[in-house]
Design a protein that fits this description.
By secondary structure, the protein is mainly alpha-helical. The protein has two domains: 277 residues, MetI-like (MetI-like fold, Orthogonal Bundle); 279 residues, MetI-like (MetI-like fold). It comes from Devosia limi DSM 17137.
Length: 574
Amino acid sequence: MASGSRLFRSETVTPLILIALVAVLVIAPLVKIVLATLTPDGLAAWQAVLASPLSQNLWWKPLANTLILGFGVASGCLLLGGFLAWLVILTDVPAPRFLGVLSTLPFMIPSFAAALAWGTLFRNSRLGGSAGFFEVNGIAIPDWLAWGLVPTLIVLVAHYYSLAYTIIAAALSSVGADLIESAQMAGAKRPRIFFGIILPVVTPALIAAASLTFAGAVSNFAAPALLGLPVRMQTLSTRLFGMIETGSGERGFVLALLLIGVSASFLFLADRVVSGRKAFITVTGKGGRTKRFALGAWRWPLFALAVLLGVGTTIVPVLVLAASSLAPQSGALFSNWTLHFWIGEGGGQMAQGQAGIFRNPVLIDALWNTIKLGLTVAGITMVLGLALAHTIVRRKGTLLANVLSQLAFMPLLIPSIAFAAAYIALFGAPIGPFPSLYGTFALLVIAAAAHNLPYAVQSGRSVLGQVSADIEESAKLTGASAVRRMLVIVFPLAIRGLLAGAILVFVKMVRDLSLVVLLFSATSPVLSMVAYRYASEGFMQFANAITLLILVICLAASLVAQALQSRVQKWKQS
């Protein structure tokens, strides 16, 4: 009886309930998709994908393209992100803070925004339709630069290098000046210092940056779809989308499992490499100065190069999208501007009679659905993330906390489009008395909340780790219930970190395409999917205008978050 009573105490019941909830959100869809591929039709799909005359087009070519993009993007991001991190953190380059901010901006721009901007400039007439700006103005664009692997690779590197910069810069800032100065006093030259001290210390960050950018590239749907599908360049994500879209569900589920395997294998190997390395202690109690190397005559040229890189991957795409949304023809971006694609009435000759986006009922619904989806998912993940983080932090080291932590971070290993496929497998048909959720707004919310759990949990853990458990224990001694302690003590103390996590989730949902592309329906349109549909049908001005609207929403959300964070926790200033 004693063991049974311990089992039903709140300290044990709460983690068990949370484990069951996360298992339903994360494990159940994966189990369902595996079971769907073990049926007779599923086994036939395995054979068709891996061992049939169709395998070359269904698996091997998409796999090769996916790996080329993955390793190419990881390498390019390490070069660009590493260069910028070194320049900002370890040199005397002018305006390092400005360069740091500029280097983090590209990741805020959706990858399909960069792909649309690339198409607006470099699209050629190979596929018919309107040519891009350069070809219309007399500059011939070869096919390999307009479509396929090369432009997709360039766009994805431009999108993800800021992620690598953030990770590497954080590692470089921990390299204390005493290490470098000791090596200089011993007569070591700069190459020796770099390869003997700096590089070994930041190797875990380099591996982490490479693994995350690799995973992002192999799971990205937007850029390969916009720049590759028109010339039949398939990746695993676009092939998966095609299978589900055309009704070949079992083959799509097989490809989803294989895509998960490719992404998770690389992340697992990267983790093993990092965990197997000898650790280097660089942060001590002797101060945290960072040694900056003098660039001499190279200060301003390298500064100009960094600014050019930042402007080319942030400001230029936005300007191109803005000009395109105002130009009647993509070849004349900066003349005869009109607001028709924004507020024009339908029925005329322009844009085949379609009204501007703010006069289109579908776009108004998509705008409302997008904001509603972002706010709903952000709110759910903030509450659930706080509960999970609180349980993990307060019961650190216990079996239940470890299991919960592993489950909560499992979605990071699953590409977005594969996660969406798993949810279609689970909720695409009625489950007992519950109806099918496929094509509903509810399914979008549940899938998005589950996939964004790791970000909410990490935000909660980072804040709760700084809050002493003694405060809660004192309240518990006064008779405060667990719910009251959570509402009155934990939530107010963690609100800033939770807001940061919630705003990150909101921005991710507003700009996300890979997750919603399979769960999208006519009754639940979202802006990113409508922009993709317009681009696929050749209405680039509408697609670019919607993408600009997405950027404005993301920027406004970031500003609102900063304003809210400055107003909460006023008691800390008194």
